[in-house]
Structures are given as C-alpha cells and as structure tokens.
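Exercise 7b. Backbone tokens:
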C-alpha cells in the first residue's frame, strides 16, 4: 500500500513538473530566435512571402525570426526537415499548395502533411502568371498555345520540382494541350527567373509574387493570369479564359506550420502574431504590389488551415489521377 502511494505521488510530481515546464515554455515564448523554413531557394515567391511575414511577426513577437531556405524535390525536402524539428515553437515551415499535392505526386513521402504538423494559419492565396523570355516569338496566349502544340519538347519550361506550384501549372497546361514540353527543374523559381531573364529558358508559370515586377518592367513577356478576373497589379495581362484557355484557374495558397506536438498555447500565440502581421499596412501594401493579398484574420487560424489542407489534398489527388500522372 505504502509503495503504491509513493509511486502515485512520484508520478503526480513528475506530471506537475512536466506541466510547469511546458507551461513555463509557453509563458516565456518566444525566449529565443525563431526559424521559418522555406522549402525553396531564396529570391522566389515563397521566400518573398515568408520574409515579408517574418519581418512583421518579428516586430510583433519582439524576437528575431531567421528564414532558412531548404530547397529540393518540389519543396518536400524542406517540409521533411520541418516535420522532424523539435516541437518547441522555434522551427516553423511556411509552405504552399505543395503540402496538399505532394501525397498524390510522391509514392513514399517522408512525412504526412496532415498529421506531422500543427497548422498555425493560412497566409495568402497568390495568382499565377504564364510568362516567357522577353523575345519569345508568340505574342498572345492564343499564339502561345499554338506554338506549344507545334513545338512541344523544343520548348524549355522551368519549374521548382515535382509538387511545386510552377510544376503543377505546367502539368495542367501540358495536359490541356496534350503536349509535352521539356521541363527544367530548379531549387526554386528565384533561380529559374534569372535564367528566364537571361533567355536561357523559354517559359514558366509562376506566382505574381515573383513575376509582377519583371512583367511591369517589360523584362519578361506575360500571356495570362490564372484568376477569374484581371488583377490590379497587372491590368494589361488578360485572364487565361480571355486568351482561350478555359477552366484554367489556379491560386497558390500558403500556410504556416509548426511540428506536431507543439504546445497549443504556442500555436495560438503564433496564430495571433500571424494575424497581427497580416493586418499591418506594410504587409498589405507589399502583397498588393505583388498581385496578392493577406487572408482575412479568421483564415489565419489553425482550424482554417487544417480545413484547407484536408479539402485541397482530396482535390489534388483527383486532379493528379485525372491527369494520368504517376507518383514518383
Ligand atoms: C513553386 O512552387 O514553384 C515555388 O513557389 C517556387 C519558389 O517559391 O521558389
């Protein structure tokens, strides 16, 4: 009897200690710099969104936020690294639609997007643009589609690896035209843009957060935006539908995640900080200049991101299967 009571007492004390340590960690959070992993190269659209949000969250939290670029395999290498990071709130992941497409595109993904992460909140949904090097022959989207049908694999198409938004857009475009182009993978569309500007690559489909400035400067050619209506940042760029490419709408949603097991109090603190960051004039204006907008506050929440991830994972499994794409 005596032993049982002492054992129970020891267990209760240990639990209490664990709770107070957990509680103390959340209470003092953030007590050290936070790292946000971007699963693509620096200088691309995901990196751009992350650095804008990180700056505003850092000011809100009163703590340094370091952006770490971990490119490769369409964003899955960076996501895998984040999935196995310590669940202490000091390593986060900012990733996009690729979290919902990877399960359909990879046979053996080293993480489960829906169970290995603690969602913090949605960030933004970014339109895509079909673009080409400045001196590419086709003038209109209609000319481009005909040019692709005629020249197929003689055209080089840049993307950021299987599961990247740029690769998804290319997959949908080639499926719509029933024509293959020669795909050239990069660690992110930041470096791909360098080659597009230099004329080493013919075309790409990339997010306005990476193409708006170049299009406005006349450095690359824009054929279409993948939104139902034209966007304010690029009023002269027609929608895909206007150019004859029906049902070609694609918006690249982005979410902020922590590893599963992160203290819910820390997740809530991060969601509140994300909402504050998205409500700042700097982020709103920077996003608008790049053709996008922050999500409303009620979308920058764990439940909203979890719901988006679940519904999009189901959708993309069907789209990838319908496109006849075999997981690699
Ligand atoms: C992509 O999905 O293509 C990525 O957003 C590219 C990037 O962020 O570098």
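Sequence design result:
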């Amino acid at each position: 009897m005596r032993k049982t009571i002492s054992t129970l007492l020891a267990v209760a004390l240990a639990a209490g200690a664990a709770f107070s340590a957990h509680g103390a960690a959340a209470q003092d959070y953030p007590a050290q710099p936070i790292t946000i992993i971007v699963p693509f190269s620096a200088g691309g659209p995901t990196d751009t969104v992350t650095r804008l949000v990180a700056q505003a969250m850092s000011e809100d939290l009163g703590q340094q936020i370091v952006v770490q670029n971990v490119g490769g395999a369409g964003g899955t290498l960076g996501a895998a690294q984040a999935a196995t990071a310590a669940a202490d709130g000091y390593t986060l992941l900012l990733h996009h639609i690729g979290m919902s497409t990877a399960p359909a595109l990879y046979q053996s993904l080293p993480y489960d997007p829906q169970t290995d992460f603690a969602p913090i909140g949605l960030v933004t949904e970014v339109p895509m643009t079909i673009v080409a090097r400045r001196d590419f022959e086709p003038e209109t989207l209609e000319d481009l589609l005909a040019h692709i049908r005629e020249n197929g694999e003689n055209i080089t198409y840049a993307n950021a690896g299987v599961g990247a938004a740029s690769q998804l857009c290319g997959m949908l475009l080639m499926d719509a035209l029933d024509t293959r182009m020669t795909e050239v993978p990069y660690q992110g569309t930041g470096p791909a843009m360098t080659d597009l500007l230099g004329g080493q690559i013919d075309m790409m489909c990339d997010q306005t957060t990476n193409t708006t400035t170049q299009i406005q400067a006349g450095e690359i050619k824009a054929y279409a935006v993948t939104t139902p209506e034209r966007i304010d940042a690029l009023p002269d760029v027609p929608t895909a539908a206007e150019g004859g490419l029906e049902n070609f709408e694609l918006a690249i949603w982005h979410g902020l995640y922590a590893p599963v097991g992160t203290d819910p109090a820390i997740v809530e603190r991060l969601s509140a900080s994300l909402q504050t960051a998205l409500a700042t004039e700097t982020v709103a204006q920077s996003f608008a200049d790049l053709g996008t907008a922050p999500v409303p506050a009620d979308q920058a929440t764990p439940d909203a991101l979890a719901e988006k991830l679940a519904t999009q994972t189901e959708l993309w499994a069907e789209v990838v299967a319908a496109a006849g794409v075999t997981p690699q």
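Instructor comment: Residues 40-41, 44-46, 96, 98, 160, 164-166, 188-190, 207 surround D-malate (CB under 6 Å). The chain has two domains: 32-126+253-322, 127-225.
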